[in-house]
Amino acid sequence: MDIIDRKLLNKIQAPFPMVDQPFKELGEEAGISEQEVLGRLGELKRTNVLRQISAIFDTRRLGFKTTLVAMAYEPEKLHKAALEINKHPGVSHNYAREGSYYNLWFTLAVPPNHDLEATAKYMANKTGALEQRIMPTKRFFKIGVNFDMVKQKGSSYNFSPDGFDKEAADSWNTVVEITEAEKNAIRGMQEDLALIPRPYDPIAQELGMTTSELFALAKDFQERRIMRRYSAVLHHRRSGFKANAMIVWQVPEERSEEVGMMMAGHDAVTHCYERPTFPDWPYTHFTMVHATTPEGCEEINEEISKATGITERLTLYSTREYKKTRVRYFVPDYDEYQQSENPDAVTTA
Question: Where on the phi/psi map is residue 240: left (φ > 0), alpha (ψ -120 to 50), or beta?
Fold first, then answer.
């Protein structure tokens, strides 16, 4: 990657332009032609630096239930179990991690009529997990992955449903009513944007609307907080951020909000959540950090500890990425998984 590639990657991680010719607009900002933008992004996708460009939706506002799941396996069973878990369409992130008894961590989402806990239990039983912990989000402090490809450092800004917006803080877990037409639009907008001069045209045509109407609908989705933005997702390791750590912290209850906001304020923290504790797991706050080296992650670790005064923590480094994608909504894959793999235990309707 040269400096132009890096600048382009920075731009497409920000809110991606929702205009008829977004790659032309990006080229004008970068001082290159539309065709060169398309060529460069095509090469970055071919080498898997760029994973996809698509709309980001709020899982819970759409009625989907979601949680982080931690599972413990015998080392020789871990790989096979991870591949089996990947088959579920609602598993968007799945990592082997070292640093605790639980060595596989994944996020799981299911549609409104599926039973989240029953699904996770079924997966644990089928894969021979020694132990399982379901860790849903109690509170968001930050969710916003952004890598500064020019400076080669984390530079994440806040997309927290809490943040400083009281209305959002009170409603992040509230389901919004979605029409069938809107579900169709979500199905189209969640797919990877084509690298062509007018990438929104096929989506609009499939929905029977103009691009102007599509952009207006996207704005409406954002105002209703069911869509965050259009944006690119990068492969962090191929982008140079080879070290990835989930740092979990034991935070006193009376300091939960104060410490959470301090942790979220660190620009190298991409995610910051509060989650439930268990007898064998006293850690309340989860922070995700990325750096070019493990030493970089440790520096961030120390900075957060010094700033907050919290010293009781574990650092769990990812040793293998089994899956990383965006959750797909309102697709038949969920019911197909249920019918073929677990017809009795995963539905509540």
Answer: left
